[in-house]
């Protein structure tokens, strides 16, 4: 049985606006196992991005707990959170955030360099990972010399290179055409499963849900529905569940 890589317990994030308290995340609880790929969906303003920022240890919740690889973020000081974020979490952002003056391979190796893990084996792994993503001929290209889809695949490789426990993707296909979007998410799902990572993807495009194992639906800060069976997920991806 796969271990639980991410556990969220009764998570709340409150903001004050014009004297009123708003719960952007409202008593949310769930678990994600190693090797499981989960989509987080919901309308704009439902709390998806706030939740992802908390999971990434970038935002502190008002109450509740987040455990990554069994480690409770609420029990850590900022220095320990930074270390956990660097070692245990991989990110893929909508804008991919590649460093413009580094090549594709150097961008991927940057996470290893940050952790002091850039060895010969790490360099070999970065090349192999980019090759798996169809970028073997782009290793020495700068981001400006690559298409949007190629840049996003570099970002996926960077998110996985340091073997994080949890990989988070915020709208990774928003700037891609449909064909490239399907390719990117399918490849991402395959690597999550193969490498035994816990993956969470925020997406506005329900068609991308066909590649995930479970779908969490948010509304007004709450987790309102979980799609767990393949039939439910396929129906959701085809827009037949309302």
What can you see in these coordinates?
This protein has one domain (4-237): Rossmann fold. It is built from 7 helices and 10 strands. It has helices spanning 48-55, 78-88, 104-114, 120-132, 148-160, 178-195, 230-237, and strands spanning 4-17, 20-33, 37-41, 63-68, 71-72, 89-92, 166-170, 198-202, 214-219, 222-227. The strands form 2 sheets. The chain has a 6-stranded mixed beta sheet. The chain has a 4-stranded antiparallel beta sheet with strand order 2-1-4-5, with helices on one face. It is globular and about 50 Å long. It starts with a strand and ends in a 5-residue tail after the last helix. The mean pLDDT is 91.
- How would you state the average pLDDT, rounded? 91
CATH superfamily: P-loop containing nucleotide triphosphate hydrolases
Number of strands: 10
Instruction: Report the top-level CATH class.
Output: Alpha Beta
The percent range for strand residues is 25-35%
Q: What is the makeup of the main sheet?
A: 6 strands, mixed
Overall domain count? 1
CATH architecture: 3-Layer(aba) Sandwich
> Could you tell me the radius of gyration in angstroms?
18 Å
Helix share bin: 25-40%
General form: globular
Structural class: alpha/beta
CATH topology: Rossmann fold
The helix count comes to 7
| Termini separation | 33 Å
- Please list the strands of the largest sheet in the order they lie side by side: 6-7-8-3-9-10
Q: What is the H/E string? A: EEEHEEHEHHHEHEEEH
List the uncertain runs: none
